[in-house]
């Protein structure tokens, strides 16, 4: 199997200013064509550091993909480092320059600055992949059958370069093994107990299959990966192993194919033609965003509301004033009335609601940070739940709770089916 | 200055299943106490690979922090690798075991499985930092003045361990340099032109100051970092340089301290006592989430609505049916009426609206993927804008648009002030 090393170049990642999302995207795309990422390295924007990293990466991988360090400003040194590493010169590439000129003209920039022109300079031995969404081209160097691709760092430039140009190129260049993956989502069993329950099955897995445990909130994702030359055979192998696994943990499995909980929900709602709406307070839009992040969600998701101020819960969702006064706004009762009001406002089969204190400041009624009440209303049945997650930071809290609400809804819908 | 290397252990990151957010968090926290992260390395869960990575990391850094690979399941090998690297044995630590027992009892798990008990086994030479939010403790090894901390991989366990225990420990252990940072947010100038405009200033910066360009959507963040022993002096140095910079690009600067656009907005709205509401379609909750992600946002943000289905825009926001029929739902006119309806529904000074096609599927009225209209309504003044971003994936599109809307609002509010 071919091995890749990803090198992320940029002080903004080392300093914690930016989260590296490129590596995740590139790793996923490479996995799909059977290339394994064996290392991801983030380094600073210094010529010697970059050269050293390329050198050590070539000792591990057949293929290096670097991102970052190709912008038009003074702090970018990747191109120079690459030329030096391969004993090459940098020169103006006419094709790239014309592409760049056309790109800038389309964006109304008729004058090409010296700084921009510099971006059309590439190592003379490089093969260029033109960047249709930015000014820095992707350059490929080849030596002794090993490849280095150098890409800019902006995620929306990286994605099309990888997907539309580099992946097809690699697929043609190498004859690759296939890697196929299935994810089994398990709820209601802690990881360690689950591991005991399926130990015998795990130990008996064929050699080309690997199992990983990925805890996500209160769900455990079992990832089963098969590697080999024959793709249909791998698919069949995975299916057979999952069929052996299911009887061991049947009641706790909520999905055996889709990975993300919001996609699992999408499958169920689409199939059963159910509609959904949301009323969020402490999750602040995150729950709605998770749901709408699924392409096609408009088929079942009719709308959401974030009545952040208490009086908006009363005015728009018809939460009773007495309920707020009697139980405070962070209460099971208010969550229940929010869900009922939401279901009515959007006229949906299912309504979800959250009310809590995301922190770090205390809520207006003094409820403890990390407390949340949520209601899942399916038809005229309401399930009320409480969570207490004081250790999560604000955004993590919003995400964790949203995920848990969707997960609980999935569990309810599945148990109805059984 | 002390140097750190972060090692992330886990096949789930190399395979693209999980985004590594721990490194970002740890890097930020270390930066705040003057420790520089010089490398981030992600490797797979194999004993030899882990040992090699530790070895090469100690050649660069004074300090290694590993995350991941400490779970109770079969695929975790970090602890063994560490013990082997330091020629140590693993043995049961009574204090850790009692901590673990108490932790599990608090969570209602009275029977301790063999697998869980294994988590209280640590290298005999290690100093243990107890984990209050999970079962795997943090272990520290020390050799020749160099430190290695090994942490579990779950982000909400990593954060308190780093923040409450490791950072204070390091602060006491080393006498550290300070690193101070200021971010200047610039809009309306492309990066390359900006670089030309401030070139002379940049070249004249004192040696202990470093400048980086961080493009975020259509905004460029200039990050100015100062390193030295005297914190008040660094703060003053940064302020002086920013005062020299401002006259060069004054009209394009929207902030000189806060970093995130939603926090810049928070400052302005809080200071001017303005209230805000949102009505989102194609951004699906992301805009609202960005706004509520700021602690204290309930002071100015009264509420948001995501009327995803067209009829909900008509029913709840009073968008006119004729407007939808005449101009389609993805139009300047609908965006304008959504903002007006939203302002009325939530009774706020400012209302924001978005309507567009996030893709990948086309919108119901055939508008092209990546098209979005948005309205910013301040008082009775409305500004309508259009964006066309066909190359962004669904979630990136939702985020990019949300960011741009907030950025435009900030620019409007600042230009009003001037």
UniProtKB/TrEMBL annotation, chains A, B:
Q: Where are the transmembrane segments?
A: none
Q: Which domain of life is it from?
A: Bacteria
Q: Name one Pfam family in it.
A: MoCF_biosynth
Q: What InterPro entries does the database record attribute to this sequence?
A: CinA, CinA-like_C, CinA_C, CinA_KH, Competence-induced_CinA, MoaB/Mog-like_dom_sf, MoaB/Mog_dom
* All copies of domain MoaB/Mog, residue ranges: 5-173
Signal peptide segment:
none
Q: Which SMART domains does this UniProt record tie to the protein?
A: MoCF_biosynth
Q: Which family does it belong to?
A: Belongs to the CinA family.
- The name under which this protein is listed is CinA-like protein
Q: Which organism is it from?
A: Chryseobacterium profundimaris
């Amino acid at each position: 199997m071919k091995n890749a090393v990803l090198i992320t170049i940029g002080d903004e990642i080392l300093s914690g200013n930016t989260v590296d999302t490129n590596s995740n995207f590139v790793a996923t795309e490479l996995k799909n064509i059977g290339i394994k990422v064996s290392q991801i390295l983030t380094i600073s924007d210094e010529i010697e550091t970059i050269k050293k990293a390329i050198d050590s990466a070539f000792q591990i991988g057949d293929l290096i993909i670097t991102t970052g360090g190709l912008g038009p400003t003074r702090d970018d040194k990747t191109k120079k480092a690459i030329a030096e590493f391969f004993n090459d010169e940098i020169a103006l590439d006419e094709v790239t320059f014309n592409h760049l000129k056309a790109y800038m003209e389309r964006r109304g920039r008729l004058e090409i600055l010296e700084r921009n022109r510099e971006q059309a300079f590439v190592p003379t031995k490089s093969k260029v992949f033109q960047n249709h969404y930015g000014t820095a081209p992707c350059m490929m160097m080849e030596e002794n059958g090993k490849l280095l691709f150098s890409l800019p760092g902006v995620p929306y430039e990286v994605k099309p370069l990888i997907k539309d140009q580099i992946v097809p190129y690699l697929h043609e260049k190498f004859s690759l093994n296939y890697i196929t993956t299935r994810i089994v989502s398990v709820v209601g069993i802690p990881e360690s107990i689950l591991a005991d329950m399926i130990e015998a099955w795990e130990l008996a897995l064929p050699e080309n299959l690997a199992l990983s445990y990925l805890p996500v909130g209160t769900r455990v994702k079992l990832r089963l990966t098969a590697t080999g030359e024959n793709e249909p055979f791998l698919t069949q192998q995975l299916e057979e192993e999952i069929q052996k696994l299911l009887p061991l943990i049947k009641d706790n499995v909520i999905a055996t194919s889709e990975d993300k909980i919001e996609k699992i929900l999408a499958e169920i709602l689409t199939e059963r033609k159910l509609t959904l709406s949301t009323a969020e307070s402490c999750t602040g839009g995150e729950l709605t965003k998770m749901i709408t992040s699924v392409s096609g969600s408009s088929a079942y998701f009719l709308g959401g509301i974030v009545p952040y101020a208490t009086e908006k819960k009363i005015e728009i969702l018809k939460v009773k004033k007495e309920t707020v006064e009697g139980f405070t706004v962070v209460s099971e009762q208010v969550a229940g009335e929010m869900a009922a009001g939401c279901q009515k406002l959007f006229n949906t089969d299912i309504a979800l609601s959250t009310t809590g204190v995301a922190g770090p400041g205390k809520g207006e009624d003094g409820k403890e940070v990390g407390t949340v009440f949520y209601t899942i209303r399916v038809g005229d049945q309401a399930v009320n739940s409480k969570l207490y997650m004081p250790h999560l930071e604000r955004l993590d809290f919003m995400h964790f709770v949203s995920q848990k609400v969707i997960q609980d809804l999935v569990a309810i819908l599945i148990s109805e089916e059984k």
